Amino acid sequence: MADELALDLEELRHLQSIAKRPRIVSIISTEICNLEKLSKEAVSAATSQTPTPTPTPTPISSTKVVPTPSLNYVTLGSFSWDQDNDKVKIYVFLEGVEQEKMETVFKPMSVDIKFNDVQGKNYRCAIPKLNKEIVPEKCKVLVKPTRVIITLFKASKGNWLDLHFKEDKLKPNVDKEKDPMAGIMDLMKNMYEEGDDEMKKTIAKAWTDARSGKTADPLKGYP
């Protein structure tokens, strides 16, 4: 149809160019306008009927996340240590340690060092509660060929009696609301648990005398 309209327009324009009378020219011009309108509509209709190509969907790649297995660690329960007035040094005798494969966690009252992939194994040196507080930001780890030196800087200068925190078992539990003798009895229990056979006999006799109503001094017989 579009081709036919194009031929008609071409012929009308030719007639318009040779026409002399105004009325004839006007009629031809009106028809040309009508045909041009029809021609545009025909082209638009043909264009709208042309199927739009369906875009090919881009395949979405799915990456499966594989969970990292948790590592198993061998606990290093045996190590040596020494100290001066400012710091404590812990010596871990372990060969094949690499500095970049270590994980260090220093806290005011604890230390946790992990040695990963040491000759195919993972090791851990952890002290959950130190004897006294340290300064975490100053602490450091030095790797030697046959050992690892962990340096802990003390928060306050002084001597540590032990590396680990320990309760003072000989310290009586004083409570004003309890019997005044309760603290002494707690002390005697601790001394009984840690004493030798002779001390245990003496304390047992004192307890027996106290229960039987005797007024003997419960601490009599101690050096």
TrEMBL record:
Function: May be involved in calcium-dependent ubiquitination and subsequent proteasomal degradation of target proteins. Probably serves as a molecular bridge in ubiquitin E3 complexes. Participates in the ubiquitin-mediated degradation of beta-catenin (CTNNB1).
Stretch list, region Disordered: 44-63
Domain CS, first and last residues per copy: 74-164
Keyword Endoplasmic reticulum: no
Name of the protein: Calcyclin-binding protein
Keywords: Acetylation, Ubl conjugation pathway
Pfam families: CS, Siah-Interact_N
GO molecular function: S100 protein binding; tubulin binding; ubiquitin protein ligase binding
GO biological process, one term: response to stress
DNA damage in keyword set: no
Annotated SGS domain residues: 149-223
Alphabetized InterPro entries for the sequence: CS_CacyBP (IPR037893), CS_dom (IPR007052), HSP20-like_chaperone (IPR008978), SGS_dom (IPR007699), Siah-Interact_N (IPR015120)
